[in-house]
Amino acid sequence: LLFQGNNLRTLGAEALGKLLRQNKSIRSLILEWNSLGAWEEGFSFFCQGLGANNSLQQLDLRNNQINHQGAGELAMALKQNASLQELDLRWNNIGLLGGRALLNCLHSNKTLKRLELAGNNIPSDILKAVEQAVDHNQDRQTILSETQNRTYILSKEVLSLKDEKTKQFLDLMDTIDKQREEIARSSRMSAARVSQLQEALDEQHSIMNSLKAKLQMTEAALALSEQKVHNLGELLNATKQEQTILVRFESRIPGQTWFEGADREGKLLRDLSAASEKNLLLRNQVDELEKKCKVQQDHLFQVKQDLTNTTAELKLRAVQAEERLEMEKRRFKQSLEDMESLRVKEVDHMTQHMEASGRSMQDRIQRLEAVRAALEEELSQVKAAALSERGQAEEELIKVRNQARLEEQQQLEHLEEKLRLMTESRDEAQNCCFKQKQMVAEAQAKASQLSLQADGLRRRLEQLQQDLNSKEEEKVMEVNKVKVELQEQIGHLQAERTAQDGLREKIAALERQLKALSSNHREALLDKEGEISLLLEKLRVKEADISRMREEEAQRASFLQNAIMAYVQGSPLGTHSSRK
């Protein structure tokens, strides 16, 4: 806001005080050339509003006729205010007392960075002290802002590291879940393949059972054929007995009976030879079927062994894969926990170190402020003592001068009276002249003594000024020492920054290790997928072999069935049944 040269009075000052008390958005206020200090009540109300304000940063009060009382009110407001950074009080009537009040208020106000006091009849030592206090506030604000910026940057970096670690952990958990899903899918596929192989084995068992049933049927047919051969042998024996009987009766019976017996014997011999040939054929077929059954059983046993081996290998590989996954998960979790613990420890160490450095800085600042306050108090006491002594010396000089003047006036009056009396008597005049000469000599001696006393007071003032200069030099040396300590602290902070850079490099190395672990994990997964594909190819080959075996067994079964049907149809039992 700009109110330059508006001749504001009591009501305007009160309105501005109310505005500053209630408003929280004004940052700059220019009140140059308004004579606010001439109205004490209005200016005190304005100072109260300034003390209650917490948003104003710049205030211009040049040429406002502010005296030492207004400066005191303004100093009280500055003790309460915590936001004002620039204050311009040039070309007012603040004086020595007002300058001291403003200097005292700077002990409690730590936000004021710029204070202009030119043209206010303030001694140079007070102006230097005010400049030093303002510079100290400015340095303090810069150090606090730097520490706040560093803490903010460190907190941001810590949060970014936490976010990155959580993202990496979530990505790793996603990859682990995907791998689990893939392993479960492969296990389901292998289980399905095993179930298919089990079904194929069941089919082979059923085929073997059917072959066994056919073999039993062939064995039963063979037993029937052997029984038929036995019956035919018995018939042959019976025919031989009949032949013997016929041979006995040949001599008795004529040739026709003999021919009939010979025909029967030939038929029986032919039937016997045919039955023996069929028996041999059936035995050969039975032997071939038994051999085929043995080959089938051996092949089935090998297939079962292969299936058990493949299932065992699959189970072992699945268990190994799960164990590897669990081991990798544990290792990764352990590494993550270690990294997290290291990061937490480093962050705690950094925060503790920052807090300790901040506390040490605050302690040093407080100590320096206490030293500065003590030095300023000593300076103010010395200055007050010097000023009081100077005032006393000036008062004594004035008293001496007044006394000398009074004495001279009295002496002049007395001389005038004596001059008047000289006309009366010259003797008395001579005596009076002699007395007057004596009085003048005494006065001159007193004047010389007074001049000597004044010279001693001047020398004492010079000594006090030298003491003040030496104390100011000591104060400057202490300030330089403080600056050197602050530079050393800045060097320590830079070393801490380099340490933080080293920690960042360590974090980058750990991230690279994580990437290497993830790449190794991916390579292991690719190897496992290759092994699973090889197992799938083996299963496909086994299925092709089993299908080929099924076809061969079906062909063999069809051949056996045709042979058995042909044997049954060609056997004498079949002819006998057909004849019936």
TrEMBL record:
Gene3D superfamilies: Ribonuclease Inhibitor. It is found in: Cytoplasm, Cytoskeleton, Microtubule organizing center, Centrosome. Residues 194-228, 272-552 form a coiled coil. Keywords: Coiled coil, Cytoplasm, Cytoskeleton. It comes from the Eukaryota. InterPro entries: Centro_Cilium_Assembly (IPR052116), Leu-rich_rpt (IPR001611), LRR_dom_sf (IPR032675). One of its GO terms (cellular component) is plasma membrane. Signal peptide: none annotated. This is Leucine rich repeat containing 45. It comes from Bubo bubo. The lineage of its organism: Eukaryota, Metazoa, Chordata, Craniata, Vertebrata.
